[in-house]
């Protein structure tokens, strides 16, 4: 088995839990590159590529895009970054994602941040965001949350069973959440 070459942390949590916000804070304080799987997929839609329209229809339904597409985008972004330390945001989202990530991209995370936040607060944050994301409407938010509970929470439990989970109370103000994040990073890096 290949030893992991790169130092990776994952950022997982429900839709609107603050993954992106906290990753932006992380890159200002630590020498990590932030890769958001969702941002990479949205960039692929904007590029007008062949797979873009398929990705778009899946995101607007809150469904998980096939692993090979997301893994390819992540690997390409890792290569292009020139860095060897990554915080990967919003991936893996299901068991298939995780297995392909570990077996094809040969990436095993060193630690997993889990941003824990109640559904009502997630809904409130997303409905206030107003950045024109196609999936930021009440109907799709419900679907995203359901997919999170059914497909992503089992992955969170998996990492917990491996002793890699760093659970963070994400229901607090952003700056307070970041204090917890910094505490985790101080012991991991
Ligand atoms: N905010 C943040 N922190 C706050 C705090 N502590 N207190 C109050 N407000 C706070 O934050 C959301 C909003 O809340 C912002 O307005 C922020 O200012 C505020 P953000 O940091 O954006 O949260 P985040 O967890 O990043 O929310 P996001 O909506 O990005 O999460 P999702 O997981 O839903 O979105 P993502 O982009 O990862 O995925 C979108 C879709 O892409 C998925 O549904 C899926 O269809 C597809 N996808 C895949 O198929 N595969 C993948 O691997 C990844 C995505
Ligand atoms: Mg995000």
Automatic annotation (TrEMBL):
A ribonucleoside 5'-phosphate binds at residues 42, 63-65, 90-93, 133, 144. ATP binds at residues 16-21, 129, 172. PROSITE patterns: ADENYLATE_KINASE (PS00113). It catalyses: dCMP + ATP = dCDP + ADP; CMP + ATP = CDP + ADP; UMP + ATP = UDP + ADP. Its EC number is 2.7.4.14. CMP binds at residue 97. Its cofactor is Mg(2+). InterPro entries: Adenylat/UMP-CMP_kin (IPR000850), Adenylat_kinase_CS (IPR033690), P-loop_NTPase (IPR027417), UMP_CMP_kinase (IPR006266). Binds 1 Mg(2+) ion per monomer. CDD domains: ADK. It is found in: Cytoplasm; Nucleus. The keyword Transferase applies. The keyword Nucleotide-binding applies. Its main location: cytoplasm. Keywords: ATP-binding, Cytoplasm, Kinase, Nucleotide-binding, Nucleus, Pyrimidine biosynthesis, Transferase. Consists of three domains, a large central CORE domain and two small peripheral domains, NMPbind and LID, which undergo movements during catalysis. The LID domain closes over the site of phosphoryl transfer upon ATP binding. Assembling and dissambling the active center during each catalytic cycle provides an effective means to prevent ATP hydrolysis. Belongs to the adenylate kinase family. UMP-CMP kinase subfamily. Catalyzes the phosphorylation of pyrimidine nucleoside monophosphates at the expense of ATP. Plays an important role in de novo pyrimidine nucleotide biosynthesis. Has preference for UMP and CMP as phosphate acceptors. NCBIfam families: UMP_CMP_kin_fam (TIGR01359). Monomer. This is UMP-CMP kinase. It comes from Brassica cretica (Mustard).
């Amino acid at each position: 088995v290949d030893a992991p070459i790169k130092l990776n942390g994952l950022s997982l949590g429900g839709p609107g839990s603050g993954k992106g916000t906290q990753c932006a804070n992380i890159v200002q304080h630590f020498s990590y590159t932030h890769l958001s799987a969702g941002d990479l997929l949205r960039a692929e839609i904007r590029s007008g590529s062949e797979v873009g329209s398929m990705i778009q229809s899946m995101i607007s339904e809150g469904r998980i895009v096939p692993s090979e597409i997301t893994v390819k985008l992540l690997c390409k972004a890792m290569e292009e970054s020139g860095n060897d330390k990554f915080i990967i945001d919003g991936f893996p989202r299901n068991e298939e994602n995780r297995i392909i990530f570990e077996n094809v991209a040969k990436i095993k995370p060193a630690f997993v941040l889990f941003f824990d936040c109640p559904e009502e607060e997630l809904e409130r944050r997303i409905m206030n965001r107003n950045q024109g994301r196609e999936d930021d409407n009440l109907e799709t938010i419900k679907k995203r949350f359901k997919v999170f509970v059914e497909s992503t929470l089992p992955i969170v439990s998996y990492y917990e069973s491996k002793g890699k989970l760093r659970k963070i109370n994400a229901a607090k103000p952003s700056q307070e959440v970041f204090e917890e994040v910094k505490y985790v990073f101080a012991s991991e890096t």
